[in-house]
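TODO from last week: model peptidoglycan glycosyltransferase.
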Amino acid sequence: MRGPARLLAVLALLAGGAWALDRALPPNLLRYELRAREVPARDGRLLAVWPAPGGVWRMHTRAADAPPHLIEMLIAAEDGRFHHHPGVDPLAITRAAAQWARAGRVVSGGSTLAMQAARLLEPRPRTLRSKMIEAARALQLQWRYGRAGVLDIWLTLAPQGGNIEGLRAGALAWFGRPLSTLDPAESALLVALARRPEATRPDRFPDAARAARDAVLLARARGVATQAEIALAGEVPSQRHALPRHGPHFTRDEAAPPTLDLDLQRSIEALAARALHGLPPRVSLAIMVTDIATGETRAAFGGDWMAEGRAGALDLTRAVRSPGSALKPLVYALAFEAGVVRPDTLLEDLPRRFGTYAPENFDREFQGRLRVADALRQSLNQPAVALLQEVGPMRLVTAMKAGGALPRLPPGAEPALPLALGGVGVTLREMVGLYTLLGREGGGAIEARAARTTARLLVQPLPGGGPSGIAWKTGTSWGGRDAWAMGLDARHVVGVWVGRPDGTPMPGATGARLALPLLAQVFARLPPAPLEPWPLRPGPTVAAAAPRADPVRLLFPPPGATLPEAGRVVLRAAGGQRPLTFLVDGAPLALDRARREVGWVPPGPGFYRITVLDAEGTSAGVELRVR
């Protein structure tokens, strides 16, 4: 066999052997592939970062993510012949060996970027054997992935101090900005950090960090940079920035789609942070903004992520709570759909019993005859319960399920009339979905005309000012445990909940006082898309059937009650026609006769007859004993 043929055969044999070794011993890319999870906003910008296993902020970084001057600095400082060798630089190794021989110690290592990438993938003790393995792996990496692939590995795994890895993570941690926006001095610091990440951390060793940065700037300038140019670099950062974590309750779900609007999310989080400072201890809040057309969430605040006292780790948009009166619009929409009433139909807001159920309004007063539209806007309880009785509780439950809400009732309970006043468990996410039905004109769950009518009836000026054309409704659960405000315009649905995560009462809390001002501020941050209000005629034209008479009766004291001698007693009545008169042993008590309760202090022990008279002369009475 001739010489050239033998050479070709040897080369072929070597190439085959290299190929076989490459396939038998592939590089271990586990560290490179175990990266932080990045969640983009809907426009592609970075919304949130969740660390890799072990709590390492290792972010994938490509050469295209870095400014060109950073790549120039990196090559000048670490591997000047990067574009001319196959992964191992014979000239650099020869120079390093000669320097070692002359000085008796390591002067320069001769490592290429490919060799450093191999060491970052599989860290080993700094020995000659390790160097040989790194050299072999470097050839393999550059053969397999090319120079661009080697740069990607180095830029992704380069240590940046502490638990920060990768230059994109380094840029965010030390400068709070994307890598592509860094100037030469800032880029030089990140390159320098990769060499000695703990010894040159700028928050701990600013002088060492500054010197290392300036050395990289000089290497890029090939030694001709002036001291004036170095001086322009300024100070190094004194502390780390937190990596982005917007919408943590929403973005921690790996299946969550990138629908949040970054600018709106930031604004809502800032609004919520200010609001939390003004709330009592252990009281938290949740906010959601949803696009009506797509159903996508544009902003979500599930609680203060870092506040243990407010149960910040819990996603309060998923907390099951009572919606109070915030569910009433759905009842009215179903009544419009069934043809039971129209907006100008007259209703009677008077005392009435529904079997054993006798609801009262929030202020314990009654408004008499009024239009359906006004009953909805004033959030009166008796009309809502009467309409649900006509529609049927099961129809309400069916509509809720069709709108994505799972009605949660007490164990063994069947759907009943208290549903109209919030006697059911729902989440803020589900309530936003139900109000989206009104914005989508029913969405198949409710007739379009009925949904549209209900939404437009809710368009009213916001107390204290705010955008016009907003349909809104508040809700307060029993004991002030939950304060709600729900609203929509032509493009968005907004939901606000305020309460204690453990469900304990908030005395004096109402949706109008705590949640509605936040709702107005959220809509002020959205592009205007006003709804037209419903054009009510000056006077009602259709009268609904009058409710059945509800006789006057004493709620307290009950028949045969025995009370202690000391202390004030509140006598309370229901039903009948006002004004009411309370009598003790035939003597009237002084009170505002429009009210249904009066205070009385027993003069001493004994038996007393308590009587209540209504405007029509009907009465109810009981006897009690004071000990």
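Done. Confidence is low (pLDDT under 50) at residues 541-548.
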